Amino acid sequence: MKELVIATQNKGKIAEFKQILEKKGLIVKSLLDYPDIPDIIEDGTTFSENATKKAETLAKYLNSSVIADDSGLVIDAIDGRPGVYSARYAGETKSDSANIEKVLRELVDVPSEDRTGRFVCVIAVARPNEQTLIFEGSCEGTIATEPRGSNGFGYDPIFYIPELEKTMAQLTSEEKNVRSHRANALKNLFANQADWS
Ligand SMILES: O=c1nc[nH]c2c1ncn2[C@H]1C[C@H](O)[C@@H](COP(=O)(O)OP(=O)(O)OP(=O)(O)O)O1
Ligand SMILES: [Mg+2]
């Protein structure tokens, strides 16, 4: 079985990468398996810059192929915020509940027809001495007025999928993994990287 290291410490992402990639015969490791690696500062202004930095930093450290995911919630009514600042939107503690509360406060007067947005995921594939490859996926939805559901992680409880009449946090992991921005970015990766499909 081929091992794949993902440059993430996010347990929600790790679970989803494992659910999807282990079906492809890959053993998934993450930064949680390499505790002595210093934190990678995400100072980019785009998801692609941050994903590239995370992947290239770890690929250099391990001298092996690495992927990274930089992702977030992009809300139209507040100029695309939180975007690349999704993780720390409400502060350095990276609290999902505080991030959700801050978004809901900002949207308090926004009517339902204007609460459109999307999750975006950019996956970077870094291999030593090779060009880093970028694959993007997104998932359209609207922002609920209150959190619902306890599955998933991050902003899932307020990300509403109209055609399912559920938030992302009300979906099973199987239902999420066929439509999420992360699943769509991986689909683009597999479509372009024959040796991983
Ligand atoms: O499927 C998702 N469902 C809900 N929320 C999500 C999802 N995907 C990303 N998000 C949110 C969580 C976090 O607030 C931010 C990611 O920030 P991001 O820097 O990419 O990840 P992170 O700092 O948690 O871990 P790491 O950088 O080690 O991958 O966007
Ligand atoms: Mg991060």
From TrEMBL:
Its cofactor is Mg(2+). The keyword Chloroplast does not apply. Pfam families: Ham1p_like. Substrate binds at T8, Q9, N10, K11, G12, K13, S71, F153, G154, Y155, D156, K176, H181, R182. One of its GO terms (molecular function) is ITP diphosphatase activity. Keywords: Hydrolase, Magnesium, Metal-binding, Nucleotide metabolism, Nucleotide-binding. The active site is at D70. It catalyses: ITP + H2O = IMP + diphosphate + H(+); XTP + H2O = XMP + diphosphate + H(+); dITP + H2O = dIMP + diphosphate + H(+). Its EC number is 3.6.1.66. SUPFAM superfamilies: ITPase-like. Binds 1 Mg(2+) ion per subunit. InterPro entries: dITP/XTP_pyrophosphatase (IPR020922), ITPase-like_fam (IPR029001), RdgB/HAM1 (IPR002637). It comes from the Bacteria. Mg(2+) binds at D70. Homodimer. Pyrophosphatase that catalyzes the hydrolysis of nucleoside triphosphates to their monophosphate derivatives, with a high preference for the non-canonical purine nucleotides XTP (xanthosine triphosphate), dITP (deoxyinosine triphosphate) and ITP. Seems to function as a house-cleaning enzyme that removes non-canonical purine nucleotides from the nucleotide pool, thus preventing their incorporation into DNA/RNA and avoiding chromosomal lesions. Belongs to the HAM1 NTPase family. This is dITP/XTP pyrophosphatase. It comes from Halalkalibacter kiskunsagensis.
